[in-house]
Specification:
Layout (H helix, E strand, L loop, with lengths): L12 H10 L5 H23 L10 E2 L2 E2 L10 H15 L4 E6 L6 E2 L9 E9 L10 E9 L21 E7 L3 E6 L4 E7 L4 E6 L10 E3 L10 H12 L10 E2 L5 H11 L2 E4 L12 E2 H14 L3 E3 L16 E2 L1 E4 L1 H14 L1
Parallel strand pairs: 3-5, 11-12, 11-13
Antiparallel strand pairs: 1-2, 3-4, 5-6, 6-7, 7-8, 8-9, 9-10, 13-17, 14-16, 15-17
Helix pairs in contact: 1-2, 2-3, 4-7
The chain binds 2,5-anhydro-1,6-di-O-phosphono-D-mannitol and magnesium ion.
2,5-anhydro-1,6-di-O-phosphono-D-mannitol (AHM) binds next to strand 5.
C-alpha cells in the first residue's frame, strides 16, 4: 500500500492535510483551521443547494428595507447565512485570533470565552451573490494570515499584510459539484465534495494553469468606461486572427469570480476586472484582502500570474481592510501581455 495519497489513490481532505503537516508544510493548528473552514463550506453548500425549498433566496432584511453591507451593497439572505456559518464554525476552535469578512464593517477578535490562536481568517462568505437567485454557481473565498501578538485583541491594522504573507488560501465553488480548491504554499489542489459520504476527496493534485490561452473573461458592458490600456488590450483580443495578436479569442463571463477562476484553473484563460470610470474613485471593483489576494496565491501556486495590471497582486501593500484593486489573473503569458499594454498605453 502506498504511503501517501496520489491521483491513483484518492484521499480525503483530512488525510491530505495530515500528510501536509507531516511534510512540515503546515502547523497542526492550521490544519484544524482549514478543516473547520471546509466543514463550514459543506454547510453553506447544503444551504445553497436547497434554494427556494430552504427559504434562503432573495434579499436579507425586511421587505422594502434591504439590509446593506459595509460596501453599500444589498445583502442576500444567503450572504448573511454564509457569513453566520463561517463565524460560528470558527469562533470556538482555539486556532484563530480574529476574523474579517466582506459582510462586516470591521474585523472581530475571537470572543474572550474561547482560547485564541495564531491566525487571522478573512473571507468573502458568498461571492457572486447576484447569481444566487438564478441558480448559477457562487462560492466562498478565504485567506489565512499569521498573527504574532499574543494576549492582545487583533485590530483591523493587524490584517493589513501583503498577500505574500498568506499561509493558506482557498475557495469553494458551489456549482453542479461542490469543489474546494486549496493552497498552503505547496501547489494548488482540488477536492470534490462526495455528497453521500460528506467528505472532500482529492480529485486534482497540483493544478497547472496552461501558460498560453485564447480565452478571456471580462464584463464587456463596461467597455466604454475603461481606461486606454484596457481599451487597447481588449481591442486587440477582439481583432482576432488578423489583428496584432494573430489568433481568435473566445470570451466567458459568469459574474461569479469563483466560477470564472475555477474555469481558468481547469483549462486556462485570463480573468480581469479593471479600473473603469465607475469604480476608479474606489480603486477598482474587487476586494484585495478576501478576493484578489487569495485568488492570486492560488493562481501563482498553479503556475499562473496575478497582477493589478501594473504590479504583482501579492506585493500590494494594503491600506484598508475593504480595499479594492484592479485584477488580472490566470494564464501567465496572457497576464504578462495585459501588463505590457498597461506599460505601453499609460
Ligand atoms: P460580490 O462579492 O458582491 O458578489 O461581488 C464580486 C463579484 C465577482 O464574483 C464577480 O467577478 C464580479 O463581482 C461581477 O461583477 P459585475 O456584476 O460587475 O459583472
Ligand atoms: Mg465577492
Amino acid at each position: 500500500m502506498s504511503l501517501s495519497c496520489n491521483d491513483a489513490q484518492p484521499c480525503s481532505l483530512t488525510r491530505f492535510l495530515i500528510e501536509e503537516q507531516r511534510a512540515g508544510h503546515i502547523e497542526p493548528d492550521l490544519r484544524l483551521l482549514i478543516e473547520v473552514v471546509a466543514r463550514a463550506c459543506k454547510r453553506i453548500s447544503i444551504a445553497v443547494g436547497k434554494g427556494a425549498l430552504g427559504g434562503v433566496l432573495g434579499e436579507a432584511g425586511l421587505p422594502g428595507a434591504a439590509s446593506m453591507n459595509v460596501q453599500g451593497e444589498a445583502q442576500k439572505k444567503l450572504d448573511v447565512i454564509a457569513n453566520d456559518v463561517l463565524m460560528e464554525a470558527n469562533a470556538w476552535g482555539g486556532h484563530l485570533a480574529g476574523l474579517a469578512s466582506e459582510e462586516m464593517d470591521h474585523s472581530q477578535p475571537i470572543p474572550d470565552e474561547f482560547p485564541r490562536g495564531r491566525y487571522l481568517l478573512l473571507f468573502d462568505p458568498l461571492d457572486g451573490s447576484s447569481n444566487i437567485d438564478v441558480n448559477v454557481s457562487v462560492g466562498t473565498i478565504f485567506s489565512v494570515l499569521p498573527y504574532a501578538k499574543q494576549g492582545q485583541d487583533p485590530v483591523d491594522a493587524d490584517y493589513l499584510q501583503p498577500g505574500t504573507a498568506q499561509l493558506a488560501a482557498g475557495y469553494c465553488v458551489y456549482g453542479p459539484q461542490t469543489t474546494l480548491v486549496l493552497t498552503v504554499g505547496h501547489g494548488t489542489h482540488a477536492f470534490t465534495l462526495d455528497r453521500e459520504v460528506g467528505s472532500f476527496v482529492l480529485t486534482t493534485r497540483n493544478i497547472r494553469i496552461p501558460e498560453q490561452t485564447a480565452e478571456f473573461a471580462v464584463n464587456m458592458s463596461n467597455q466604454r468606461h475603461w481606461q486606454p490600456p484596457m481599451q487597447a488590450y481588449v481591442g486587440d483580443l477582439l481583432a482576432g486572427k488578423t489583428g496584432p495578436r494573430g489568433k481568435d479569442f473566445n470570451m466567458r463571463w459568469v459574474a461569479s469570480m469563483v466560477a470564472d477562476v475555477h474555469r481558468i484553473m481547469t483549462r486556462g484563460g485570463i480573468f480581469s476586472y479593471p479600473l473603469d470610470a465607475k469604480n476608479e474613485a474606489k480603486g477598482g471593483k474587487l476586494r484585495l484582502m478576501y478576493e484578489a489576494n487569495p485568488m492570486a496565491f492560488l493562481v501563482e501556486q498553479a503556475g499562473g500570474a496575478a497582477t493589478t495590471g501594473r504590479q504583482r497582486m501579492l506585493e500590494v501593500r494594503p491600506a484598508d481592510l475593504h480595499q479594492r484593486v484592479p485584477v488580472f489573473l490566470g494564464s501567465k503569458g496572457e497576464v504578462e501581455e495585459a501588463g505590457r499594454y498597461h506599460r505601453e498605453h499609460d
